[in-house]
Amino acid sequence: MTDLAEAPVLAPLADRYVRDSAPLSDGVVRAMPVVLRLERPPAARTPVLEAAAAAALALCLDPRAQPGGEWHDAVTAWVSTQIRKIARRARGAHWAAVQELPGVTWSVGGAEARALLPGPVDDVPRIVSRLQIGGTELEPDDPGPAPPGVPVIWVNAGLEMTVGKAAAQVGHASMLYAAAHGLTSVPAFAVRDADGARWERLCAAVERGAAVAVRDAGFTEVAPGTITTIAA
């Protein structure tokens, strides 16, 4: 494990992943809203997920989230508990409006996602609470092989997760990967589907400590403890 002194906000997450300790709980349920820009027609599924993965990590590594920054207390309180995310979709004026809220927007090709400052789920800005969580799906695309030398977030294709659920999971994976490797900047994550034999090999890599896995809490779509994504 690399020293996380330069990105201390991720230290609690790294500690939990290495020592398998339970997250803290103060009775407040917190989440990071991740807003996906889905215009008509929308961007392809893979770059949307790649933008979501990068945006979630970018907010955590932003100087405003580090000690002394204006976001530090909110981000630390969230990272110290369960790193829950809720993905929503927006377009047009609604997408423009969420740019005014504290957060980080990330673009991949023609896709964009904005990670917003995490906070209590019962105290979400009205403009965010009005955005739909489900209802729009993106067709599977064929992005081809991942570029060499970049970390890949593999999605468990057998689960057939919605784009919103997958966006939340790849955001978890990018944070776990960064915490495990002591990253202080956002790499160019590739997101790819894995099924069959590839998924079995990835799970074996997790057992060897050569990859990091996201095990879902089971709030939506999948059973608790399901491995949804693996970053390697």
Written account of the structure:
- The radius of gyration is 16 Å and the shape is globular.
- The chain is α+β, with helices and mostly antiparallel strands.
- It has helices at 11-19, 45-61, 72-79, 92-98, 126-129, 163-181, 196-208; strands at 30-37, 85-90, 103-108, 111-116, 119-120, 152-156, 190-194, 212-215, 227-231.
- It is 33% helix and 20% strand.
- It is built from 7 helices and 9 strands; from the N terminus they run αβααβαβββαβαβαββ.
- The longest helix has 19 residues, at 163-181.
- Mean pLDDT is 92; it is low at 1-5.
Summarize the structure.
The protein is α+β, with helices and mostly antiparallel strands and 232 residues long. It has 7 helices and 9 strands; from the N terminus they run αβααβαβββαβαβαββ. The two termini are 15 Å apart.
Question: What order do the helices and strands come in, and which of them pair?
Answer:
Blueprint: H1 11-19, E1 30-37, H2 45-61, H3 72-79, E2 85-90, H4 92-98, E3 103-108, E4 111-116, E5 119-120, H5 126-129, E6 152-156, H6 163-181, E7 190-194, H7 196-208, E8 212-215, E9 227-231
Parallel strand pairs: 1-2, 6-7
Antiparallel strand pairs: 1-4, 1-5, 3-4, 6-9, 8-9
Helix pairs in contact: 1-6, 2-6
